Amino acid sequence: MATVTFKEATRIYPGGDHPAVNKLNLEIGDGEFMVLVGPSGCGKSTSLRMLAGLEEVNAGEIHIGDRDVTDLPPKDRDIAMVFQNYALYPHMTVADNMGFALKMAGVAKEERAKRVQEAARLLGLEDFLSRKPKALSGGQRQRVAMGRAIVRNPQVFLMDEPLSNLDAKLRVQTRTQIAALQSRLGVTTVYVTHDQVEAMTMGDRVAVMRDGVLQQVDSPLALYDAPNNLFVAGFIGSPAMNLIQGKVVEGGAQVGDYVVPVPREVLAKAGSDATVTLGIRPEVFRLAPDNQGVAVDVAVVEETGADAYLYGTLSGLSEEERLNAQQIIARISSRQPPQRGSQVRLVADVGQVHVFSNTTQGRIS
Amino acid sequence: MPRFLSAKPDARLIPLPWSTPLAEWPTEYLIALPRGISRHVVRFIRVGESIYAAKEVIEDLAVHEYRLLHDLKRLGTPSVEPMAVVTGRKATGGEPLDPVLVTRHLQFSLPYRALFSQGVRGETVERLVDALVVLLARLHLLGFLWGDVSLSNVLFRRDAGSFAAYLVDAETGELHDQLTDGQREHDLQIARTNLFGEFLDLEAGGILDGALDPLTLVDSIENRYRELWRELTGVERFSGSELHRIESRVRRLNALGFDVAELDIRTSNEGQTIQIQPKVVDAGHHSRRLMRLTGLDAEENQARRLLNDLDTFRFRTGQQQVDEAIVAHQWLVQVFEPVVTVVPPELRSKRDMAQLFHEVLDYRWYQSQREFREVPIAEAARGYINEVLRNLPDEAISTEFQPIDQSGRQLSNPYDPSAGFADENEQAPYDPWEDGAEPVAEAAGPFGGFDIEALRAKARQADPR
Questions:
Q1: Residue B184 half-sphere exposure, CB side, CA atoms within 13 Å?
Q2: Backbone dihedral region of B134: left (phi > 0), alpha (psi from -120 to 50 degrees) or beta?
Q3: What's the whole-number average pLDDT of chain B?
Q4: ipTM score
Q5: Distance of residue B157 Cα from the nearest chain A Cα, in angstroms
Q6: Strand A294-304 vs strand A307-314: parallel, antiparallel, or unpaired?
């Protein structure tokens, strides 16, 4: 087991005009489950492949434990890529399907048997070891594939979108199993996904990347509750955080005819900016009991059990502004849902309104 | 209603039972050809005279592979031809089915499981391994990272006395401008592991010749790849008085079947030392030359053999000074065509014509040795057809091999070798993990998002502070 450290690690593709990964600094703790997430092209896969030795590191360093692995070939890094290939061999037993790579590596027979037995125990596959894989379900096949990586006793597991070729049901099932298994094994794991649900439900910490630059690395809850910047605020959360433009005025930020209260010290950080962006999660909006709140024209109300989702746009916009206006989403109680076409007023507690600078895009609240 | 993504649509594909999961298709649409193992459902389907391979796989991967196979074709790589991606499939009950990627079945091709049948000779295995190594090096030269190098993902065609390998699965592939050493190493390690597994599997199934050792085989793959790569791309330094070494390098590469399109030559200031490195090499040296001279499309070693015969013809007819293209035309009309036109139509699906010509040349050589005379080619062709060709299995579509696996045991599903043998049916033991695998609530609300309250609860549990 080991820590993984990226130090100013940079990857520039030949002919590329900007780095695919730009001065990545990231420390992954021993036994930690780190998820790299971001939209396509953000550099998450490239970062993982730099760690795996598949991509050159043009500047900076990568360490596994105390070892500088920056220039080591992949096979000398003591890592295991999981789910690269999980074709199971029909004539071999489950045990042989799990342990055959150890045979190739020259590991003695008793040791192989021991490691396979141990992995099978962890994976609930002990009763299957002497059987052929033909009768295995999709989930059991996945577990055998995990077993192949586990028996190698690597210092680090690497997983690059491991669930992307599974159907929805198997994806959820395997997701849960990987997370449970990782915490039992305690092997440092770096996991790449574009899916924020996977990231948030699996990772001990999540690193959000964009355009080759690390935006924030934090626990899932911290990312959700205190996003560093507008990108993270918009990326994490589904439905996404409402990002609303407000004019800086005395006591807050003005949205339409309502001033959203913002503490003075926060406003001071906006400097000379005339506007700020307010970030409000759909579930913290409440229908205002009085006429005090952001006015929203209701377009649709979608009821889902105890809750309802209200979709609308800010009131008082011109026709042109309305076309470009961001949709406002609020989760409200479905007991007395507002009518479509009506106007409602929405409020949120001051402490739950995130404020971002429009100049730096950074959080100032 | 299913949608077809296709550059060259085959209308006969449209009425197939797309609303049925591929694994449950009625056998009237299927043909049991030997093939490698796969983690997806794969079936060969027959429409009229054509045979296609169909693979059920999620949409992103199907479209990705379809496009990648197109790119590989465009770059002249030996790979299967993508035909269509069928999306928007729904079962009769309305539930969505995964899309199907359709590729054209490669004529005269043989999967490794067919080739390894009945005590294959060590020499043949070496040739298969060589073919795979050449394919891997060619793909790497193009910047293709395969990600899943294995015998199951390759088809072999006879190529004179050797084999030519074709890529049939590009699902995990990526096309880059250029591969890093790490990427090539990665592919090579995957090749080692996968092939080792495949050899062990053949061994466990009683299909691999006992004299062959899986570890030796995979070691030789790695060594041969490294040797070939060094020859194709390595830097060579020599003294300025050894200029012939430039020519030797080019000839060696030609002999390996590669053309040198760009050779980087650097000399020291005084011209005492010279350094050369091939920068751009293209596979298919002989097959391109044969195509240019005769219009014949052949594999590399077949082309080499045919060109040798063409050179002999030129020498024998004393036409060394005559334009090569003119002699090539004479050879085609007087030698090649008379041989292939005497093959009765019903025997034509046993060998493709270039391979047949090569085998006739071999036949003639042995007959001439035996009878101490130079046997005319037309006579040799008749002898070959009657004594050899008639007795060969049909290889245009190698149905000879199915549905019994090569070990003589019955496959549990003749359409799917991944399912193992029929005599191994056994009851699966109880698996509490499967039992507990109820569909987990994927989403809170209509957004397919995560449940933030559940996440908070989990965090509180982990850290009650």
A1: 18
A2: alpha
A3: 86
A4: 0.81
A5: 24
A6: antiparallel
Q: What is the pLDDT of residues B378-399, one digit of tens each?
A: 999 999 999 999 988 777 765 4
CA distance A192 to A35: 6
Cis peptide before B344 (omega within 30 of 0): no
Q: B34 is written with which tokens? A: 């030997």
The H or E element spanning position A192 is strand A188-193
Residue keyed to tokens 């990627």: B101
Closest residue, chain B, to A220 (C-alpha) = B455
- Tens-place pLDDT, residues B137-175: 999 999 999 999 999 899 999 898 888 999 999 998 999
Would you call B180 and A55 a contact, using CB atoms and an 8 Å cutoff? yes
**Spatial separation of the C-alpha atoms in residues A68 and A90, rounded to whole Å:** 40
Residues of chain B found within 8 Å of residue A96, distances taken between Cβ atoms: 200, 204
What percent of chain B stands above pLDDT 90?
A: 42
A316 φ/ψ sector (left φ>0, alpha ψ -120 to 50, else beta): left
Interface of A with B in 73-112 (CB under 8 A): 73-75, 84-92, 96-97, 100-101, 103-104
pLDDT-derived band at B406, boundaries 50, 70, 90: very low
Choose among A83, A89, A53: nearest CA to A71: A53
pLDDT tens track for B253-275 = 988 888 888 888 888 888 789 89
| Backbone region of residue B112 per phi and psi (left: phi > 0; alpha: psi in -120 to 50; beta: other values) | alpha
**How far is Cα A179 from Cα A175, in angstroms, rounded to an integer?**
6
Q: Please, which residues 47-76 of chain A have a Cβ atom closer than 8 Å to chain B?
A: 52-56, 73-75
pLDDT at position A293 is 92
Copy the structure tokens of residue B119: 């005590």
Q: 50-69 in B: which are within 8 Å (CB) of A? A: 57-58, 60-61
